[in-house]
Write a structure and sequence with these properties.
single chain; mainly alpha; 76% helix; 0% strand
């Protein structure tokens, strides 16, 4: 039988674009389903991290989240011409699918390993404080940091380029826990340098909560990423940051978000 098509009208351009992207993703996903199944069978997570991937919902759940993210990032293409769609399908899609799969499965495996290491370092910090009879809130603070940095749905909520940075950030958190055994006061002094930017991030997040503007979401995420890199530079300076970061750069980003928000609100 002949294929049937339906026309649907949307209230605004953003909704229409999102539906269009989802449709492109669905068509390409169906076309490459055998390859996606092959990728699912080909990758597994390190067995020694089993307790960690159980925390994230188990291996099957985690793998399905990874595949979903790969399909979104590879197949959500805003094609408006049939020839562009067919060229991508024939010349680029499969290569990009396998490249992204390798990158993201590798990154998630490294996240699981470094998450396990960081959790162990925090546990050892707590045991050390208890053995010395020293009351300290630092272990709990670091556990909360760990949960904020890598929530259960981290694969879903973070872009893949940020997921690839998480192992380095987790390694820095583990180093912070190690150094916390020696001096809680130094840790508190460094945390005090980060706090003003976290307060600003939370304030801006509340201000723009409920906004469907992707530009605001992008800028807020950039600020969040910068703050995480700033933590790395303070607590584990031997680990390189992904890009230069400083109080001056953080203040400039906060100002940029404020100005963009005012600009959009005035329209």
């Amino acid at each position: 039988s002949e294929p049937r098509f339906a026309v649907k009208l949307y209230r605004n351009k953003q909704e229409a674009t999102e539906a269009h992207l989802e449709a492109i993703e669905a068509m390409l996903s169906r076309h490459f389903q055998k390859d996606i199944n092959f990728i699912l069978r080909s990758y597994s997570f390190p067995e020694e991290t089993r307790p960690v991937w159980l925390f994230f919902g188990g291996e099957e759940t985690l793998k399905n989240r990874v595949i979903k993210k790969i399909k979104q990032e590879v197949f959500r293409q805003n094609f408006r011409k049939r020839e562009d769609f067919l060229a991508f399908l024939k010349e680029k899609a499969l290569k990009l699918l396998f490249e992204k799969s390798h990158q993201l499965f590798t990154a998630v495996s490294e996240v699981l390993t470094e998450y396990s290491n960081a959790r162990q370092a925090i546990r050892e910090l707590e045991e050390t404080k208890q053995r010395l009879g020293v009351a300290s809130t630092l272990p709990q603070i670091l556990r909360e940091e760990l949960e904020r940095l890598v929530p259960r749905d981290f694969v879903t909520i973070y872009p893949s380029e940020f997921v690839a940075q998480l192992p380095r950030m987790l390694k820095a958190l583990g180093i912070r826990a190690e150094r916390g055994k020696l001096s809680t006061e130094k840790d508190q002094a460094k945390a005090a340098q980060v706090k003003p930017y976290l307060v600003e991030y939370e304030r801006l997040s509340r201000r723009f909560s409920g906004s469907a503007d992707p530009e605001k979401a992008r800028l807020l995420f950039e600020l969040r990423w910068m703050i995480e890199e700033f933590k790395v530079s303070l607590f584990a300076p031997e680990i390189k940051t992904a890009f230069p970061v400083s109080p001056k750069r953080l203040e400039a980003k906060i100002k940029e978000i404020e100005e963009k928000g005012l600009e959009k609100d005035s329209r």
